[in-house]
Amino acid sequence: MISAHRLTKTYGARTAVDAIDFTVEPGRVTGFLGPNGAGKSTTMRMVLGLDRPTSGTVTVNGRRYVDSPAPLREVGALLEARALHPGRSARDHLRWLAVSNGIPSRRVGEVLELVGLTSVAGQRVGRFSLGMGQRLGIAAALLGDPPVVVLDEPVNGLDPEGIRWVRTLARDLAAEGRTVFVSSHLMSEMALTADHLVVIGRGRVLADCSTAEFVAEHAASHVRVRSPQQDRVVTLLRDAGLDVAAHGGELRVQGPDAATVGELVGSAGLLLHELTLVRSSLEDAFMTLTADSVEYAGASR
Ligand SMILES: Nc1ncnc2c1ncn2[C@@H]1O[C@H](COP(=O)(O)OP(=O)(O)OP(=O)(O)O)[C@@H](O)[C@H]1O
């Protein structure tokens, strides 16, 4: 489990992470979401002891990462901009990591297999594509068979097959009982991967809830109705106390589910040509939630 308590990081006058509290529980994937510059990488670096908190604490399984006697066996991490020796092969890179962390070298073959790099294990990593580099980073993260896995933007630069692979891997690791903490700026991707979400903007926690709760609360919905007797339907629904707006040939009814609207219209003997529950996309919900905390917003908004 990862536990942050009033975790804060300032760089000069800029507060990158502002007294945040959150926990990342084992057995589920926790998505760490926020727009660019929200403080995700800074937070993850503090989890891993690569940055010192200005104040507050963050612990992994009850102690600071730097106090762990065998960090790679405790926490596996994929960070952005991973420094690799370009002339080294993937296998040698992992062997070097294993040896320097007291991990048996047979584990190298296992993780290469796990991430699908066995056939290119002898190639120099300097020639790896972005996706292969990400897979190698994930192999390194899993080398110590750690109970806690931290992945910073693991799907960046991956093709759809690679994205699906990371999603399945994260879910499998969580199903094995591990603590899995994955950052992303893509709401729709996280909705498919994460069981729980911690959303941050400008260094503050904006939401900390299950993905299902987030969807129910933030992805607004309405019922789209088309009828050749539109005016009568509008009157009927308004008389029933519903919020109805006409948009050209369609009606948007806020609030109720499609069944409620259908039953009202049907019991009045009116005709329906369409009755659809429309959810606004999660990406829209995320943009709305974080709108005030986007650091570099496009001028066209
Ligand atoms: N070493 C540093 N010195 C000064 N400012 C920094 C440093 N590292 C991060 N920041 C600032 O802290 C804020 C949070 O950055 P961080 O990289 O943690 O965000 P992020 O959510 O990971 O964003 P991204 O998705 O763009 O990586 C930003 O405003 C960034 O400019």
From TrEMBL:
Residue ranges of coiled coil: none
Keywords: ATP-binding, Nucleotide-binding, Transport
Signal peptide per UniProt: none
GO molecular function: ATP binding; ATP hydrolysis activity
Keyword Mitochondrion: no
Protein family per UniProt: Belongs to the ABC transporter superfamily.
Residues covered by the ABC transporter domain: 2-227
Record Gene3D superfamilies: P-loop containing nucleotide triphosphate hydrolases
Name under which the protein is recorded: ABC-2 type transport system ATP-binding protein
Domain of life from the UniProt record: Bacteria
Keyword Nuclease belongs to the record: no
